[in-house]
## 1
Amino acid sequence: MSEFEIPDSMKPQLEDENFTDVIEGTDDGTGHGLGTKVIVFNDNYHTFEQVIGQIRKAIKCSEEVGYYHAYTIHNKGQSDVYKGNIEKCLTVSSILQEINLQTQIVG
């Protein structure tokens, strides 16, 4: 893994155990799948930059949110990066897996 500098703007949030920034989708009208989420696991293979870039591509988030998830994955072994309906979770997971990130859909 390459070393990277955590932006100062993210440091207080990364130290707050209650901070969470899971991107949430919207209900598809059926009420099904609202508890479904995509988890990304640490693999000690991808660089922080690769993980951040692919998360940003998959969930269309800010760079700070991408950093947060990469930091969480690296330090806690996993991060819930998206919560929403099953169809969107499948799409998000598929995009993350384009570079062979290890993902799991739960819910």
Note: Confidence is low (pLDDT under 50) at residues 16-20, 26-33.
## 2
Amino acid sequence: MAGARKSPASRPRRWSAEVAKRSDALDLEPEVFKRGAAGIARSLKRSAERSHRRKGTVLSSAMSMLNFFINRAGKNLSATRRRVLEQAKVELRKQAAPHPVQASAGSTHLGGSARRRAH
């Protein structure tokens, strides 16, 4: 019976949709994964920040949901779409990274010996 189809009762259960609906997953905006990389990252970060059910950090929650989507799509994900989603990971890391402290426009940096002489 090489070409026999499985009966509906013996097919593997599709658990991913159930996980997305009922778990402590983020509440995502509609069609979030159809956007560009920056839009996906912004939306996932916003959803993670608003979530009261998240267990980890904002970055880890958003990244988990992005990875969940990529893994769920599997081989059905085109190379172009996969690149956009991988770029969304990069954007998400950029948005979650702390911004470096910048000196104000009028200040000057006094190095070690110059600082001692100034006082």
Note: The mean pLDDT is 76.
